[in-house]
Amino acid sequence: MELYEVMRSTFSAREFTSDPLPDETLVKILDHARFAPSGGNRQGWKVIVVRDPGTKRALADLSGIAAKRYTAQAKNGENPWNTIDPPRVDAATIERTPAPPHLTESIAKAPVVLVIGVDLKVVASTDQELKRVGVVSGGSIYPFAWNVLMAARHEGFGGTITTLAVAQEAKIQELLGLPTHVAVCAVMPLGRPVRRVTKLKRKPVGEFAMRERWGGPPLAG
Hints:
Layout (H helix, E strand, L loop, with lengths): L2 H7 L13 H11 L11 E6 L2 H23 L15 H5 L9 H5 L2 E8 L22 H13 L3 E2 L9 H8 L5 E10 L30
Antiparallel strand pairs: 1-2, 2-4, 3-4
């Protein structure tokens, strides 16, 4: 499969058939994904492969807690969970907002779920002293997570990077026996998609790339 085709057609799959994802194929996917770049080539990723129905259900339920706030904020016209603007919905509104099944049930029903973590002892978080949420550490883990999805696409499978459960990180660490220095970065359901999406909607380059400085002329080919 040609590289650009994979990049343009690797979509977020949340509905899966009953087909299994064998360990042999999963090992092949991870074997290719491991060539992702990471800071200092320290390769701090850790992967818990979850097939147990009870554990998948628990991860889905933990995702539902943050999904309630996500949904309540979205209904209120907000950008959910952003770190700049505080929520304009109160705790009571969030609590009575149902968690949409499409944000949780793929985790419970997928043939396999990968819990992807990163060892914070080996990550160079150069923004750790800035007065904002840290993002640099993600550069050493999300290229790996995306490689998993592209490799899965190549093998006829699919999935998505979900992060709602991360808001309950301590409970995930307890559930899976993770040490506290391993941060949970993604909960990734994987399986054979029910349907294929081949045309993805994305903003054109000129809407996000600008020349020389913020507010500069848009980059155009």
